[in-house]
C-alpha cells in the first residue's frame, strides 16, 4: 500500500480534477474501515456506551473485539458495527459522539474516502 498524500482542500485536485461534492454517507463507510470497534469514550470518569443506552450484550461484544484486536496488534480493522453489505452502521442510533461529530466532506472524510478508493475524493 502506498502512502496517501493530503493536499489542500481547495476546489481542485491534480489527480482527480474537480473534487466531488459529498452530500451524504450513502454507499461509503470509509470512516468506519479502520476503527475496529465503535470509538466510545471509556475511562475512569465516563462510559459513553452505557450513557447512550448500549445494551450489556453489545458492550460485551465491543469489549471482546477490543481484546481480540489488542491481542493481535491489529489496528486497521473495520468497525464491529459496520455492515459491509449495506455500508451503514448496524446501531446508528447508538453511535458514539465522535461518529456523530464526523463532518461529511471535510479533509478527514476526503482522506478516508481516498484511502478506500471512493470517488477520487
UniProtKB/TrEMBL annotation:
Alphabetized UniProt keyword annotations: Cell projection, Cilium, Flagellum, Methyltransferase, Transferase
InterPro entries according to UniProt: Puta_zinc/iron-chelating_dom (IPR005358)
Domain of life assignment: Bacteria
Taxonomic lineage from the root: Bacteria, Pseudomonadati, Planctomycetota, Planctomycetia, Planctomycetales
A GO MF label: methyltransferase activity
Identification of the protein by name: Flagellin N-methylase
Organism: Maioricimonas rarisocia
Protein's GO biological process: methylation
Amino acid at each position: 500500500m502506498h502512502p496517501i498524500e493530503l493536499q489542500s482542500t481547495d476546489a481542485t485536485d491534480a489527480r482527480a480534477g474537480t473534487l466531488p461534492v459529498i452530500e451524504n454517507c450513502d454507499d461509503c463507510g470509509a470512516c468506519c474501515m479502520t476503527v475496529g470497534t465503535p470509538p466510545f469514550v471509556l475511562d475512569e470518569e465516563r462510559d459513553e456506551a452505557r450513557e447512550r443506552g448500549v445494551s450489556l450484550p453489545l458492550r460485551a461484544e465491543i469489549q471482546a473485539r477490543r481484546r481480540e484486536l489488542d491481542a493481535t496488534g491489529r489496528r486497521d480493522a473495520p468497525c464491529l458495527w459496520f455492515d459491509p453489505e449495506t455500508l451503514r452502521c448496524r446501531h446508528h442510533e447508538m453511535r458514539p459522539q465522535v461518529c456523530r461529530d464526523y463532518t461529511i466532506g471535510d479533509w478527514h472524510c476526503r482522506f478516508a474516502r481516498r484511502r478506500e478508493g471512493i470517488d477520487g475524493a
